[in-house]
Structures are given as C-alpha cells and as structure tokens.
Write a structure and sequence with these properties.
Layout: H1 2-5, H2 8-25, H3 34-56, H4 78-105, H5 118-135, H6 137-143, H7 155-186, H8 206-223, H9 230-236, H10 238-249, H11 253-264, H12 268-276
C-alpha cells in the first residue's frame, strides 16, 4: 500500500537521529540527553512527514518524477494542523520537563545499570527510535495524505480534541503537583515519604493516565478523517495501544511500583495507599 511506503523516510529519520546521537552519548555513558533526544525525534519525524513528499518530487537523486507534489500539499488541512500542533506542544513540554529533571538529578536513574554497557545502552537508543516512530504514527500517517483528502472537522473530531486537551491538562497538572510536593518536602514543609494528595489520590500514576489519553485522542482524530485506508487506521492504533502497554507493563508503572515497594513496603501508610488508590485508571485494579 502506497501510504506505508511513504512511511519509510519517516522511519529512516527516526532511527538515523537516535543512532547518530547514540554515537555521541553512548561512549561517554551520558544519559542526561536521552529524553531531550526523544523529543527532538518526534519533531524531526513530524517535519519529515510533512515536507519529504514535496522535497522528493523535486530532487532527481531522490527519484523525482514529472508529477511534482504541488505547493498546496504544504498547506495542511485543519486536522493535520491540529495533530501537528498537538504533538509539538506535547513534545516541547514533556521533553523540557524530563530533561530539566535529568539535569537536576545529574542523570537518569533508569540507566544506572546499563549506561556503562555500550551494547545495552545503544539498545536503549534503538528502543527510543522505535518508540518515536510507532507512537507518532497517527500524526505521520495523517500528514502523508494530501490535505484535500481530509474531511471537514465533525463532532467526533471535537470530542477527540477534547480528549487530547483534557489528557494533556491531566499530565501537566500531575507533574506540577508532584514537583510542588517535592519542593515542599525539600523545604521541610512536610515529612511525607510519598505523594498521596491531589490527582495522586485518584491514581497512583495520573501523569501516565494522561499520556495514554493524549495518544488515544490523537489516534481518534487521525483515524476518522476519511483520508486513511483502514489498514493505516489499524496500524496507527499501535500508538495508544503501544503507549498503554509500555507504560503499564514495561518501563513506566512496574519499575516505579517496585521501587516504591522496596522503599516503603513495611510502611502502613504505603500499604493503605496501595489498598485504597488504583494503580492506573480510577476504575481499574489496585495491583
């Protein structure tokens, strides 16, 4: 299918950037730039999804043909513009937040055990490239379709936008609440060992719930545009599903829960927190 072949330059850009950065940072065992590099990956691949078809059609060494992509292809449809703006806002905010945290802490604790193993640390950068490519699929696929193919925005699209906005607000608020809690703790305004207030009394990982909601909304906004063939719609579903699986079962919730159990496992307040506050969705389970 033609639309999948158009994804090749996007994939190449995602992996090329991360491997190029890995060649700089892996030999130095430097992990502070990891999340910032992921943010840069989303921005560059999004730009490639918009501009590559236009550039390729005009450069002979990239296989230019007589049917050059018109300038009008660069005038994004409202849906494409909203998806692109959303990913830029999300990337900029999250990338800056995580990078600031890593620099303040002097590194990223996730890589303490592997950053001195060049093979394993390189694998982490390859995993990030895969994450950038898969999670961004709703945006990339939408941008690879001519603007004229997209339907005007409808009620379902506005519902998708509302989900994106609400989830973004949830993620930002949860991060701000935890940062404020840490600052108060460091200033000795309280002696709580872990946060249980605000959104953190609604879910043990509300920021991650927001993350899943953002990409579910992105997929919905892209999927029902009428511009994508159903195989592309199904492929783009890997974004919210993959985000949920990775966060809930691999690199998000599990290590944090294990760390909490290691630190506070004998604390009655921790046991009560785990008993009374769901681990993820408020309607979900506690383990």
């Amino acid at each position: 299918m033609a639309i999948f072949s158009r994804l090749i330059p996007v994939a190449v850009s995602a992996f090329s950037l991360q491997l190029g950065l890995a060649s700089v940072f892996v030999p130095r065992a430097e992990d502070r730039f990891y999340d910032l590099s992921g943010a840069a990956g989303f921005l560059t691949t999004t730009l490639v999804s918009i501009y590559y078809p236009f550039v390729r059609s005009r450069l002979p060494f990239l296989g230019a043909s007589n049917g050059a992509v018109p300038l009008s292809h660069l005038c994004l449809a409202p849906r494409q513009l909203l998806l692109t703006e959303a990913v830029v806002m999300w990337t900029g905010r999250l990338g800056a937040f995580l990078a600031q945290r890593a620099f303040k802490a002097g590194g990223d604790s996730r890589f303490d055990e592997i950053k001195h193993d060049k093979l394993k640390f390189t694998g982490a950068w390859i995993a990030q490239a895969t994450w950038v490519f898969v999670v961004g699929l709703p945006v990339y696929l939408s941008n690879l379709v001519p603007p004229s193919a997209h339907r005007p925005l409808r009620a379902l699209d506005y519902a998708s936008l509302a989900l994106i906005a609400a989830s973004f607000a949830l993620e930002v608020t949860a991060d701000l609440q935890k940062s404020a809690w840490r600052h108060a703790r460091d200033s000795e305004k309280h002696d709580q060992k872990f946060i249980t207030s605000g959104l953190w009394g609604w879910s043990r990982h509300p920021n991650y719930v927001g993350e899943v909601g953002i990409w579910a909304g992105m997929w919905s906004l892209a999927a029902f545009s009428g511009a994508l063939p159903w195989p592309a719609v199904l492929a783009a579903a890997a974004s919210p599903l993959g985000t949920y699986f990775l966060i809930r079962h691999v690199s998000g919730v599990p290590p944090l829960e294990r760390a909490g159990e290691k630190k506070f496992g004998d604390d009655p307040k921790w046991k009560e927190y785990k008993r009374s506050v769901p681990v993820f969705f408020p309607w979900g389970g506690y383990e």
